[in-house]
Input
Amino acid sequence: MYPETAYEITTQAPRPVDYPAYLPAPEGPAMLPSEIPPGVQMVTLPGGVRTLAYTQPTVPAAPSVSVVQPIPAWAKTTALLTPTIGGGIAAAGIGLSYAAPGLIAMSQALWSAVALVAAGVIAVPVLLRTARGASGRTTTHITQNIAASGMFGRANGTINQR
Output
């Protein structure tokens, strides 16, 4: 149950000679075996020091009793909606595969309409200009001559019409 450890378990009381020089010697008499609480034993550490240590858990683990909890409403709703959403996505994919030829034809018709509008924007002014030239009417030329002295000076000018 417990992993193997690197210490030796003994039941003898500690002796003053077992303590290293940097530790003070214990004061008073050694503990009697009846005074050692349950779960505590004398152990010899890898450095040769002998001491009391807990060798087993002192508090028993609580038994794991699983209480059945109800499933939340949001989880039930999500579980019920998931296949519906997946089916809707699948139906949309199938519908798009059937509609693809019509969508391609509509996009080609849209580009044809854009080309027709562009041709009309170019062709209408050309046709109007040629129609005006055939009627014999000439355009009016207006010439303005304006002169001013200084930044805020009064401006004088003439307008000539030909």
